[in-house]
Specification:
Layout lengths: L15 H16 L4 E12 L9 E11 L2 E10 L2 E16 L4
Antiparallel strand pairs: 1-4, 2-3, 3-4
């Protein structure tokens, strides 16, 4: 995700909601990768470094543990080699299969 001018807050850095949005999207992709409809049960984020306009952010998600219908996922958001945020999401599988297509 490239940080645009519309994503900048009054302090001249990316609004945390946009960074959270990117991390949450990576989390959703990871926890829905098995074909079962899975939703967020909760999430939190730690902002590690500020992000300026024009920065390109990349989010990488990893499953840490799956137990029953629940799971825990960690997402790291980077700008180049620099970590800018760490996100932890808790998932809950609904038991329904993803629609085909």
């Amino acid at each position: 995700m490239t940080v645009s001018r519309s994503m900048i807050n009054g302090h001249g850095i990316a609004h945390g909601g946009y960074v959270f949005l990117l991390a949450d999207t990576a989390f959703a992709c990871a926890c829905n990768s098995r074909g079962v409809v899975t939703v967020a049960a909760g999430a939190d984020i730690s902002f590690v470094a500020p992000v300026r306009e024009g920065a390109v952010l990349v989010a990488e998600a990893a499953e840490r543990v799956s137990f029953g219908r629940s799971g825990i996922y960690d997402v790291t958001v980077r700008s180049g080699d620099r970590v800018v945020a760490e996100f932890r999401g808790r998932s809950r599988a609904t038991g329904r299969q993803q629609p085909a297509g």
